[in-house]
Design brief:
single chain, mainly alpha, 8 helices, globular
């Protein structure tokens, strides 16, 4: 029972993806497809944050996709598709927040922040360890934005505030939903 361990987001993902009735082949296909999309989105996030070395885009996907944390998750076929779907939500949320902060529009930033908050919440409710992944990605995003040339202090501040607010709201909402 996924509810008992605080994975309401995983149940929602199973409903959305159509994997409530488990089919090993469909789950494996979806899991692999979402892993490839997630790695691609993480590379795109790095590119948008200023990574330009070709080696980054060759080494990062190999290290990311074969890291022991993720490889161990792929053993559990009943959650592989949903896990990778949630893994895809994290870079999408960061891309929305970063692009919203760069747009200089309060409306775009509000929409991007709200969408990022909802994606964070869904990812947290799918797998609790994504809280640490989101914090680490937030630190990486801040460091990479700070070293861009030219440095846009206003976009950096908007992104930092939007990320902090989205993280705090989504983490608090996750704790309320799971009643922990």
């Amino acid at each position: 029972n996924w509810y008992g361990i605080g994975r309401e987001g995983m149940v929602l993902s199973k409903f959305v993806l159509g994997t409530l009735d488990f089919n090993m082949y469909w789950a494996e296909y979806l899991g692999l497809a979402f892993l490839l999309l997630a790695v691609w989105m993480w590379c795109f996030l790095l590119h948008r944050l200023g990574a330009r070395r070709r080696l980054t885009f060759c080494v990062f996907p190999m290290v990311f996709a074969t890291h022991p944390i993720f490889v161990e998750q792929f053993y559990f076929t009943t959650q592989m598709a949903e896990f990778n779907f949630a893994l895809l939500m994290v870079p999408v949320a960061f891309l929305l927040i970063v692009e919203g902060a760069r747009s200089c529009s309060a409306g775009a930033l509000g929409i991007a922040g709200t969408a990022g908050c909802l994606l964070f919440l869904w990812a947290f409710a799918s797998y609790q360890s994504f809280l640490a992944l989101v914090l680490a990605t937030g630190a990486l995003t801040g460091l990479m934005m700070a070293r861009q040339d030219p440095f846009d202090r206003a976009a950096f501040k908007r992104c930092a505030w939007c990320f902090a607010l989205a993280f705090i709201v989504s983490a608090a909402a996750y704790l309320v939903i799971t009643r922990t």
